[in-house]
C-alpha cells in the first residue's frame, strides 16, 4: 500500500461499480484488505451469501440496514458496525424507506475487487451467482415456497 489519502471524490484506479443496484466506490485495495464506500438505495439488497475466505464488516454512515444471519435479523444505523465472519451466511437489506451510506470492508481482499468489476451493471441473477462463485462468494439458493 502506498502512503497517502484517497479523497472523498476519489477511488482506487478511478473505479466505481453498480452492483445489485448499489454504488460501490473502492477506497483501498491491497492483498490484505478491500474497503469501499457504498450507497444503498431503499428497497435494494444483497441476497444471503457466504464468504468462505474473508471476514466482512460494514460501518454505517447514514440511514439504516437490516442484516440477516439465517432467521436472525439485526438492525444497524449511523455509527454502528456490522460484523460478518467468514463462513457465516448473511444478507444485507435496505427496508428503511430511505437511502443508506456505509463503508464496507473485507479481509483479506482475495478476489472481491475483480468480482465487482465483473458484476458492474450485471442484471442477470443466474450469471451473478455463477461469476460470484468463481470469485469465492457463494450465494444461497432462494428459500422454498
Automatic annotation (TrEMBL):
Residue span, Cupin type-2 domain: 38-103
Record keyword Cytoplasm present: no
Keywords, comma-separated and alphabetical: Metal-binding
Keyword Metal-binding among UniProt keywords: yes
Family matches, as Pfam families: Cupin_2
InterPro entries: Cupin_2 (IPR013096), GPI/OXD (IPR051610), RmlC-like_jellyroll (IPR014710), RmlC_Cupin_sf (IPR011051)
Protein name: Cupin domain-containing protein
Organism whose genome encodes this protein: Sedimentitalea todarodis
Amino acid at each position: 500500500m502506498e502512503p497517502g489519502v484517497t479523497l472523498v471524490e476519489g477511488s482506487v484506479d478511478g473505479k466505481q461499480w453498480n452492483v445489485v443496484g448499489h454504488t460501490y466506490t473502492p477506497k483501498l485495495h491491497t492483498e490484505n484488505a478491500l474497503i469501499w464506500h457504498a450507497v444503498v438505495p431503499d428497497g435494494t439488497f444483497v441476497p444471503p451469501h457466504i464468504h468462505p475466505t474473508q471476514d466482512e464488516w460494514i460501518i454505517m454512515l447514514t440511514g439504516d440496514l437490516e442484516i440477516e444471519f439465517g432467521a436472525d435479523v439485526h438492525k444497524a444505523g449511523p455509527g454502528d458496525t456490522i460484523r460478518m465472519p467468514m463462513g457465516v451466511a448473511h444478507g444485507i437489506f435496505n427496508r428503511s424507506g430511505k437511502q443508506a451510506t456505509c463503508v464496507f470492508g473485507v479481509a483479506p481482499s482475495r478476489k472481491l475487487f475483480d468480482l465487482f468489476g465483473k458484476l458492474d451493471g450485471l442484471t442477470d441473477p443466474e450469471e451473478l451467482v455463477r461469476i460470484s462463485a468463481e470469485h469465492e462468494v457463494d450465494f444461497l439458493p432462494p428459500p422454498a415456497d
